[in-house]
Design a protein that fits this description.
This protein is α+β, with helices and mostly antiparallel strands. It has one domain. Strands 1-2-3 form a 3-stranded antiparallel β-sheet, with no helix packed on it. 21% of the residues lie in helices and 34% in strands. The structure holds zinc ion (ZN). Zinc ion binds next to loops.
Length: 94
Amino acid sequence: MTCDCEATFSEKFLERAKELYPDSKDHSAELKNYAFVFNREGGMDLRGFIPVELTHTVINKKTGATRLKKEKTSLLFSYCPICGVKQNLAEESK
Ligand SMILES: [Zn+2]
């Protein structure tokens, strides 16, 4: 990742949680939908993503019976959704 938006905004939300809930303890804040993914150099990059659910009806060729099936995949962001910076320096140099 070429920007620090995830860390910066996690810290801002943590500060906000402490303001909102001053009588609580052990505050934490985590931006969801970020994951470490392999880059082209074999290293790891932290990338934002949108979870995607694919739904389809499987048809049994012999019996004609159907059953609903759901598959999960992700759409990785090529650019930071917060600041717009390209997410991977390694890909940028190609
Ligand atoms: Zn950013």
